[in-house]
What does this fold into?
Amino acid sequence: MTNLIVGIGVGENNEKILNSINSVRDKVRIRIFTSLDLEFNGTNPEIHKCENPEEALIDALYDKSIDAAVRGTLPANKMMKNLKRHAGVSSLERAAIIETSDGTRFLLAPVGVDEGWTVDEKISFINASRPVAKKFGINDRVAVLSGGRTGDLGRHKIVDKTITDAIEIAEKTGADHCEILIEDAVRQHGIIIAPDGISGNLIFRTLALLGDGNAHGAPVLNIDRIFVDTSRANKDYSNAILIAESLAKK
It folds into this structure.
């Protein structure tokens, strides 16, 4: 076990997050930020009970009393606002580490509905995702998706724009334009770039919440601290904790 401390938010006293913390506390030093009355045997995890854990977790990340943070089951709104304020950014760029039911792992971005709507934003995702993929042994080839096949040009102006944008992005980054064929793209590419944040979020939810896949956490790519976002619908949080610690080791 290293001396690094991973902070995690507990906003709902549900069995899955507490079991996740218990399953990795022999590997990682953990500090829980919560407003709930929780008890664990021993000194790990440490429990920091406070009135506003969404703010306290981010404050601790930026005063360096913890080395990395995981959202856990805390509500997103207040926490993300505080994270953006500390980081000095107007928006957050997240890439979700996804595993399909057959064990195929890849990074998916954008996954926030307000993210990745321009060519430049998607190029930024690609540049930031490649080293993360390498860190976790994931193929760093990039597939850029669009709203249709190239032969669909002319059917709808929005579809046309996704196709022309994807072609431009692929040319500028050395990625592959894989059209709308995500089922083929994941076979050879470890980074999947969705046409926009809405479609990325729908892909994430379909795989992780309906398709028996797993979402292991979504590191924020454009800040100077290690923060791994999670959904309150996650099945398990242990991998998000391990991802945060691994990224902090750099």
Summary: Residues 119-135 form the longest helix (17 residues). Helices lie at 15-24, 53-62, 76-87, 119-135, 157-173, 182-188, 197-210, 238-248.
